[in-house]
Amino acid sequence: MLAREIAESLLKIKAVTIVDEDHLFTWVSGIKSPVYCDNRMTISYPEVRDKIAEGFVKIIKEKFPEAEIIAGTATAGIPHAAWVAQKMSLPMVYVRSSAKEHGKGKQTEGVLPVGAKVVLIEDLLSTGGSSIKACEALINEGANVVGTLAIFSYNFAQVDQLFREMEIPFVTLTDYKTLLPIAVEKGYVPNASLETLKKWSESPRMFTKE
Question: Is this structure's pTM higher than 0.90?
Fold first, then answer.
């Protein structure tokens, strides 16, 4: 199963780090997390990045065959979008987190015709905020975002809600629920920590002091 293969690859190359409650990571959103997924590391492993690209291509052909342009989010989504666009012989654009403050002041780079059907590629879906902003930027420039893809998702309920409100489907190659039992099986985390890690995904602010 591809989801398991990708999860195993992320663990093997140490793209995923799992720590105890005394060494939590702090996200930009303020969430305290026992898990950090750095999918930027995948670009250094040809076999892994190709497996990711092939996975994206398969999903696009099956679920979004109408796609005309592949978009990547700056910066981590750009290389994956480029490899997918190359494999599918499709045009590519990328989306900045905000518009440039110089030059033409653009937020989206590349040729984006009005009405073009776009699939957006992210490296990661955490709280979903940055992905939604990228979708909004594409829509504001006249694009039709038919779907969003990512390598990994933390399975936060708010992500489902955000994309449902935008009426944009999203698909990930693997996710937190898939990765956790594999991490235990492979000895990356002790079985005793499994329940706490599961609860964190259901309540991501459980370690965060308001």
Answer: yes
